[in-house]
Amino acid sequence: MNFYDVVTRRRTVREFSPAPVAEAIVTRALEAGLKAPSNAHLKYWQFILLRDAERRREAATEYLRARDIKEKTEIEAFLGGFEDETLKKVYRRTLPIQLTMMLEAPEVLVVCYKMKPLSQCRTLFELNPLASVWMCIENIMLAMAAEGLFGCTYTPYDAGGVKKFLGVPEGFEIASVIPFGYPRNVAEDRDNETLAGRLHIDKW
Predict the structure, then answer these.
(1) Is residue 164 part of a domain?
(2) Is the pLDDT of residue 116 over 90?
(3) Of the chain's two ends, which shows fewer C-beta atoms within 10 Å, N or C?
(4) Contact assessment for residue 167 and residue 160, using Cβ atoms and an 8 Å cutoff
């Protein structure tokens, strides 16, 4: 596909068809991730595919603590600390399927990266490993979109338990857990983003 078509096509999807994803497609997407730029050319990135159903269920429920919140009162209580209405709208749509998307996706990818503890970082420069792993993730998501695949980047609030459960070595962190596959329904259109109001020349 044309690059700009792929960028336009890329979506966040949380509800998946049960259709399996061919191994060759998964490989191509991960290899696209490895072509992303990285801090000092240090591509300290590792990938875990959660394919065993029971291990995935345990990782999602016991360690990621993902759960489906369906009661409206509980959802609104969760949203009480948020001010941004756009963010609230997203959570109202996604909280009811946080766990379901993990369990029903044909594939779940865990993206790991090496970085010193956040508490030891004193400058933005020291966050370069985190920035570069997200360039890797975006390459993967764009490659998936080119193949007709979509997913959701889920960042753990506390990854300590799931790191231990998955055997992630000391010094590595989990950037994102990504359930992905073919969408159950036609992917929603994104809001039309415009450059006007965001671009500044010479000064803000």
Answers:
(1) yes
(2) no
(3) C
(4) no
Provide mean pLDDT across the span 148-168: 94
Query: What pLDDT score was predicted for residue 13?
Result: 94
Amino acid 192: pLDDT? 72
Across the strands, what pairs with 107?
180
| Exposure b/e, 144-153, CB count within 10 A at least 16 = b | bbbbebbbbb
Query: What is the sign, positive or negative, of the torsion defined by CA atoms of 186, 88, 132, 190?
Result: positive
Looking at residue 123, the DSSP 8-state letter turns out to be S
> Does residue 194 belong to any structural domain of this protein?
no
Question: Dihedral sign, CA of 131, 89, 12, 66?
Answer: positive
- The answer as to whether 188 is a domain residue is no
CA angle, residues 10, 64, 25, in degrees to nearest 5? 35
Kindly report the CATH number assigned to the domain that includes residue 54.
Answer: 3.40.109.10
Angle at 194 between CA 192 and CA 200, to 5 degrees: 160
What does the pLDDT average to over 101-123? 93
pLDDT at 188: 65
Task: Provide the token pair at 75.
Answer: 């959802």
Report the amino acid identity of residue 23: E
Enclosing domain of residue 95: 3-181
Count of domains observed in the chain: 1
Please name the amino acid found at residue 2. N
Structural domain contains residue 71: yes
* Torsion sign over Cα 60, 115, 82, 88: negative
What's the pTM? 0.92
- Find the mean pLDDT for residues 167-193: 88
